Amino acid sequence: MEWQLDPTIRHLNHGAFGAVPVEVARRQAQIRNEIAQNPTQFFAREIEQRLDDARRTLAAFLGSDPAAIAWVNNSTTGVNTVLRHVERRLGPGDEVLVTDHEYNACRNAVEAMAGRVGATVRTVTVPFPAISETQVTEAILSGVTDRTRLVMLDHVTSQTAMVLPVDALVAEIEGAGIPTLVDGAHAPGMLPLDLESLGASFYVGNCHKWLCAPQGAAFLSVAPRFRDEIEPVVISHGWNDVRPERSRFRKLFDWVGTDDPSAVLSVPEAIEAIGAAQPQGWAGVMDRNRALALEGRRLVLDRVGGDAAVPEAMIGSMAAIALRPSATPSPGFIDPLTEAIRRSHQIEVPVFSFPASPDRAVRLSAHLYNTIDDYAVLADALSHHL
Question: Are residues 216 and 106 in the same domain?
């Protein structure tokens, strides 16, 4: 499989922005060309059917009813959409529960929403390094109170690369009558999913990460009881569309103004292309990437030291290694160690301050273009700079 990535760089940061295979990029270019040839034909006559077709392919991959799926540009947009819906039900004294591993952008959205209505953001500390799934589950459930109105969970934590036990958590929390919002930004293509069985009220996920679709393709899954009420962050023509053959949910979310739908419409190509890269299909892709992430983690630990931080049972296609504290606090979004490794060894790999500077962790990603040699070079780089 050919990739568009710069071959002079070792890319160990797939989890941040993904990577697009050449054949998927060609499909996106083809779609853009179709739009350019006759925009009126495409947007006035074809777009709904094309979105439906792509949605059915994605829903089958996710174990979801297509009726539950709305296209959004990214997971952060999906999270904001849900929070706008929840905001109308909140007031002073109500609580939204998150963990201290929550992705910064989504944590900011929760804080902003709570601030507008006087609600409280309750943050539970999830141990890192973590000992077990049971310990993580107990920590999160201990934060649920009679004032909890929403629990937002990362399926895979971004900075610390932990696969949270969302099946058990969602069952317990939804069983108590509290809606859950699962931020599955990393999960599609990394983990086997069955969203219908999961039963979360809301689930968001990116297609540009482990599915390897172009940036700008993501989804929001909404349980039936909320579909007639939730609205997109942008209201457009669907608001007063009276056609009975399409649901209100579909009409509101499928047209939020003229944009570039080529990323979304390339999702079926990405699912097919990546799945065809291993004899066992997507199960083989997920198994291969997880095995490489674990092998890369062991190699770095053996040569550099550090803390594995998370049990193997909670690892997907990423792994974080807790490093010794930094000598100087990180001054900004990009850690100085990230930049030093990039300059000296041509490696793109993120280093995060967690839970706060000077504590830090390096996060390794593994996808089909990676080999064990990438992690050996990373180990050499870390040995040089630590």
Answer: yes
End-to-end CA distance of the chain: 35
The pair of structure tokens assigned to 185 is 């930004």
Amino acid at 236: S
Q: Which long-range contacts (CB under 8 A, 24 or more apart) does 222-225 make?
A: 222/68, 222/70, 222/249, 223/68, 223/199, 224/68, 225/201
What type of residue is 275?
Answer: G
Q: Does residue 242 belong to any structural domain of this protein? A: yes
CA–CA dist 284, 151 (Å, integer): 33
DSSP summary character for residue 334: S
The answer to whether 101 and 159 have CB atoms below 8 angstroms apart is yes
**123 and 17 fall within a common domain:** no
Kindly report the CATH number assigned to the domain that includes residue 300.
3.90.1150.10
Q: How far apart are CA 284 and CA 156, in angstroms?
A: 20
Contact (CB, 8 A) for 97 and 91: no
Cβ-based neighbours of 144, under 8 Å, separated by 6 or more: 97, 151, 173, 176, 178
Q: At what angle do helices 133-141 and 166-175 cross, to 10 degrees?
A: 30
DSSP type of residue 8 = T
Are 101 and 153 in contact by the 8 Å Cβ rule? The answer is no
Tens of pLDDT, residue by residue, the chain (386 residues): 999 999 999 999 999 999 999 999 999 999 999 999 999 999 999 999 999 999 999 999 999 999 999 999 999 999 999 999 999 999 999 999 999 999 999 999 999 999 999 999 999 999 888 778 999 999 999 999 999 999 999 999 999 999 999 999 999 999 999 999 999 999 999 999 999 999 999 999 999 999 999 999 999 999 999 999 999 999 999 999 999 999 999 999 999 999 999 999 999 999 999 999 999 999 999 999 999 999 999 999 999 998 888 999 999 999 999 998 876 766 666 888 999 999 999 999 999 988 877 888 999 999 999 999 999 999 999 999 87
Under a CB-based contact definition with an 8 Å cutoff, are residues 78 and 204 in contact?
yes
Handedness of CA 2, 160, 76, 200 (dihedral sign): positive
CA distances from residue 259 to 43, 44, 47 in whole angstroms, order as listed: 10, 13, 11
3-state secondary structure of 361: strand
Q: What's the pTM? A: 0.96
Domain count within the chain: 2
Domain span including residue 52: 23-272
Six token digits for residue 350: 């993120």
